[in-house]
Specification:
The structure holds 2 protein chains of 2 kinds. Chain A is an alpha+beta fold. Chain A is built from 8 helices and 8 strands. The two termini of chain A are 28 Å apart. Chain B has a single domain (1-370), classed as Peroxisomal Thiolase, Chain A, domain 1 (3-Layer(aba) Sandwich). Chain B contains 10 helices and 17 strands. The mean pLDDT of chain B is 96. The chains are: A alpha+beta, B alpha/beta.
């Protein structure tokens, strides 16, 4: 590893981590029932599976104008998309709304009536998690909620254009080391040949296990480590 | 005190262009000055028929194989200054709200699985990336109709962090029965032509194809972005907080940056009534001397790309020294700041460009020039 004279380094501390990793067979009806206690009564009726899972991991996290949200998903609201397409030639306005990126975040935050300074929805594949982290580390907000997830598709999954499982995660990052449960670092000057960026599914798994993750991307090296 | 939502980082626009149904940015700006309408009534579901609604597609609405946007994008993006785009120091940011979603509708209609090869965001960007020969340093944002603004702000941050020498921002959104059907179901895409900021009984929007790029750097440039702001109301999916607080948050953020400059405002102005009224009222209070224009009455709403498409048109208009008025609107309007006719750019020092989106998302930036 070499380190040039001028580099960009940033460290943020993890103060909240939650991962939803339900059984692969969980349906949206199952999720509504399982997670009902985390939402106001009737609030879940029009939420998507991904919206429910994201709401669950954000449960207890009160966000506001001083916060930013970075949201990563490759396929987003697949079921809403599938059902919206099936609604033609009388397209459903509710399903159209639910299919639009970043619907899951908006379902949760509109349900709570919580205004947010900046929301950064990313939609890529291979480097999605890495790009979401870099976006979060460049964000000047006092606290950044890095979240993401997918929902299991049906006919789109059969054609390989949807996630094969539903999950969601969130990490709350701040500048405060006190009381942190982990640390996220980036250094543009460090390049390691080892490590590949975790995909979104692998990232969620490793976060759930509180595993250390290290890799290099086109703009520098990333690391995530937990204290407990 | 600087509003928390204001980001006062300065970047230069080394190159920019756009393509709409009226041509490139220069041709589009000139056509807008002549009050030409790109929108025309077309069946909402393309060849599958449906109600006639105002659309401004470049060619046919229906998705094809290869996707109809690909040859248009290939031809248009060939104008980007050559560089190793997508390499470590030359990142690419792609923004869109539609990507290749029209191909999903085409698959459901035709049952041809080849449409699915570019129906998802990452697949559409992968196709664009291979077509343009970019490396894999490509970041993709999608936040409905403020998407391009996110790309601008992220590019700004990359440049100021020293993580890039230049950034290429590309945004593309092409209309399809998928998206036209959605807005039609919401009843805001209807048989009426859009008349942004006009006081009338029924609001109407139009939809248009748009693709644009900008090369951004910290080096000196004749056109610069000096402040940017984002805000998310999270009040309702399809309506704004009724006091206009979301518009006011963005207006306050850019007002600080404008200082004593004489500005004109390119508003979002899709043709919906409530959002148009709130936007006109809030910005007329914040900038009472600033003429407010919208170009979506001619071009239609280019959705997630409107922020970058309209930036390129604004630059072309400034170069021609004539700013197009609010094409498609004949008044009366919500405020007397709405400019219906073109005006000379030489009377102003800067422009504010705004966009709004589902969920009460707001975005604005300040464009200055030599």
């Amino acid at each position: 590893m070499t380190k040039p004279a001028r580099s960009f380094e940033r460290t943020r501390y993890v103060h909240h981590l939650a991962v939803e990793w339900p059984a692969a067979t969980e349906t949206i009806a199952d999720a509504r029932q399982r997670l009902a206690a985390k939402f106001p009564r009737h609030a879940t009726r029009r939420m998507t599976h991904l919206g429910l899972l994201l709401g669950s991991v954000l449960d207890g996290v009160v966000a506001g104008l001083d916060d930013a949200i970075v949201y990563a998903t490759t396929f987003a609201e697949t079921r809403a998309l599938e059902e919206y397409l099936a609604s033609f030639p009388a397209p459903s306005p509710a399903l159209f709304q639910s299919s639009i990126h970043p619907s899951a975040v908006q379902q949760v935050m509109i349900g709570r009536q919580q205004s947010i300074g900046r929301v950064w929805p990313l939609a890529a594949d291979r480097r999605l998690f890495e790009q979401a982290l870099l976006t979060a580390l460049l964000e000047p907000a006092e606290r950044v909620l890095v979240c993401g997830g997918e929902e299991r598709g049906t006919w789109m999954l059969d054609h390989g254009v949807a996630s094969d499982r539903s999950f969601a995660f969130v990490m709350a990052l701040t500048r405060q080391p006190n009381g942190a449960i982990g640390r996220v670092g980036f250094d543009s000057g460090m390049r390691s040949t080892e490590g590949v960026p975790p995909g979104l599914v692998d990232a969620a798994k490793q976060l759930a296990a509180r595993a250390t993750i290290e890799w290099s991307g086109p703009q520098g090296s990333f690391s995530i480590a937990f204290t407990s | 005190m600087i509003p928390a939502s204001a980001e006062l980082l300065d970047i230069g626009i080394a190159a920019a262009d756009a393509m709409t149904a009226l041509g490139n940015a220069r041709a589009t700006a000139a056509a807008l000055v002549e009050n030409r309408l790109a929108l025309r009534p077309q069946p909402v579901f393309g060849r599958d028929g449906g109600d006639p609604v105002p659309l401004a597609a470049i060619g046919q609405l229906d998705e094809s194989l290869p996707p109809r946007w690909l040859p248009l994008a290939r031809s248009f993006l060939a104008g980007i200054p050559a560089a190793e785009w997508g390499s470590g120091r030359l990142p690419v940011i792609v923004t869109s709200s539609n990507f290749g979603v029209g191909s999903l509708y085409a698959f459901v209609r035709d049952h041809d699985a080849r449409h699915l090869e570019h129906g998802t965001p990452f697949a559409a960007v992968r196709l664009l990336r291979s077509t343009c020969g970019w490396g894999d340093n490509v970041t993709v944002f999608s936040h409905a109709c403020v998407t391009a603004h996110l790309g601008l702000l992220h590019a700004t941050r990359l440049l100021h962090a020293g993580l890039a020498d230049r950034v290429l921002l590309v945004s593309f959104d092409f209309v399809s029965p998928f998206v036209a059907g959605g807005f039609h179901s919401l009843k805001i895409l209807n048989s009426g032509m859009p008349a942004p900021y006009a006081k009338r009984e029924i609001g109407s929007i139009g939809l248009g194809d748009g693709i644009a790029y900008a090369v951004l750097s910290r080096e000196h440039a004749a056109f610069r972005i000096t402040a940017q702001a984002l805000h998310n109301e999270m009040f309702h999916f399809t309506s704004n907080e009724p006091t206009g607080a979301g518009f006011a948050a963005c207006a306050a953020a850019v007002k600080f940056a404008v200082g004593g400059r004489r500005v004109w405002i390119k508003g979002h102005g899709t043709g919906t009534l409530e959002a148009g009224r709130l936007e006109a009222e809030v910005f007329s209070r914040a900038f009472p001397a600033a003429p407010l224009v919208s170009w979506k009455g001619s071009l239609g709403h280019t959705l997630g790309s409107c922020g970058l498409v309209e930036l390129a048109i604004a630059i072309a208009a400034l170069q021609a020294n004539v700013i197009p008025g609010t094409v498609g609107t004949s008044g009366p309007c919500f405020t007397d700041t709405v400019a219906l006719a073109p005006f000379h750019a030489s009377m102003f020092d800067a422009a504010i460009l705004t966009s709004n989106a589902f969920g009460g998302a707001h975005a604005a930036f300040v464009l200055t020039h030599d």
